[in-house]
Amino acid sequence: MQGKTVLVTGANTGIGRVTAEDLARRGAHVFLACRSEERTRPVVDAIEAAGGRATFLALDLGDLESVSACAKSFLAKSRSLDVLVNNAGLAGQRGITKQGFELAFGTNHVGHFLLTKLLLPALREPSSARIVNVSSGSHRSATGIDFGAVRRKTASVSGMPEYGVSKLANVLFAKELARGKAGSGVLSAALHPGVVASDVWRSVPWPFRSLMKLFMLTNEQGAATSIHCATTSDLEDGAYYDKSRPKHPSRTAQDEALAAELWQRSEEWVAPFV
After folding, report:
1. Domains and CATH numbers, the chain
2. b/e map of 30-57 (b: 16 or more CB within 10 Å)?
3. What pLDDT, in 10s, does the model give residues 96-131?
4. How far apart are CA 182 and CA 179, in angstroms?
5. Catalytic residue chosen out of the listed positions 163, 240, 241, 263
6. 241 is a catalytic site residue
7. What are 227-260's pLDDT values in tens digits?
8. pTM for this one?
9. Using the 8-state DSSP alphabet, how is residue 233 labeled?
10. Is 33 left (phi over 0), alpha (psi -120 to 50) or beta?
11. Pick from 10, 25, 186: which is nearest to 85 by CA?
């Protein structure tokens, strides 16, 4: 990773922070795209204190105007991008994004779709760039995508069914990128980090959150597959990784027609911000 440029979303905490710090130690210049500069500054300072290079970028994935501004800010600073790690995400929350998408779907998929699309010119500059989508084993709970429901406020009480749909979208997105949408020389992959005791569960009420985390992986364990996909020399294009190895995702996640429809609709949704 020496001399390479990496962008990690949600890098101020959890597995995103571990991923960013690890790649910086390997010699990469890491851009940390996060909502709060105040919360991200300690990570930037820690990376720089260890001799690495880190740059903060403002990014709110639930606001497509913010996503567009983030991409423009990055492109003003760097012509090329070797690795994009679409890591940020939320689970167990209810609501709707600024542009009217179900909260988990809009944040976990639509925001990352637009960011990736805007950064593709920079990703096509290196000879072997890659896009890493942090998905979840929860994608297996989704049997499809209700394209009407993703344009409405979260319907379930827990928000978890919607989370599963958003994670399914992450896998479908990676596979469609690999079918030629990313362009020549750009690889993509999706991954399951394991069930990690990260900040993604921050909206689950105490004491349930504390009890859940007793049985979860550490952030360091959870970041292992993200780091593998970002650094391995033999990344399998379009694959779904679990425990740093390719694994078959759900049957729905292998539905080429659904992946193509998701891509087409996503293109239409983000068109005003491109």
Report:
1. 5-273 (3.40.50.720)
2. bbbbbbeeeebeebbeebeeeebebbbb
3. 999 999 999 999 999 999 999 999 999 999 888 999
4. 8
5. 163
6. no
7. 999 999 999 999 999 999 999 999 999 999 999 9
8. 0.92
9. T
10. beta
11. 10
